[in-house]
Amino acid sequence: MTQAGGWQGRYFEDFEVGDVYRHPLGRTISEADNTWFTLLTMNTNQLHFNAHYAERSTFGRVLVNSGLTVAMVLGLSVSDLSQNAVANLGWDEIRLTHPVFVGDTLYAESLVLNVRESESRPYAGIVRARTRGLNQDGTEVLDYKRTVMIYKRNAPQDKGHFPEPAEPLRPETGTDPT
């Protein structure tokens, strides 16, 4: 039986300066997302969880926690930028350029700015990218630069971690009742 391969993410050798990745997934932010993230991070600013208070603010409604906006856009970029990361090395110049509200859908795209070999780890390289988050209307809501250490394709550290199943998958015999 043939084992089909899936998306493995980009390795250091796959990055070129000037590449633009429109990350494939979008994510709509729910009220639960915003409330849970705000509680989890112990953010006590009422703009993020008190609708009555937020109605009287400049925005007139609950504002999505900016930490959640950053985390969501970062997460949307992982499949293309850091699926094979050794470590995040830094985020710079984070700018929140437009408010985000419950019900907004976020998308992300990234531009590769710099690619270089790691001086301390021969199995990895350093990639610097500019990532921005867009809402459903195409309005930029967030912009930042991120530096990530990425495994090279031949690095042994990210290989062989899937456990060998005690019982392999086998095709069923007979007809499928569905």
UniProtKB/TrEMBL annotation:
Residues 155-178 are annotated as: Disordered. It comes from the Bacteria. It holds the Pfam family MC_hydratase. GO terms for molecular function: lyase activity. This is MaoC family dehydratase. CDD domains: FkbR2. Residues 155-170 have a biased composition (Basic and acidic residues).
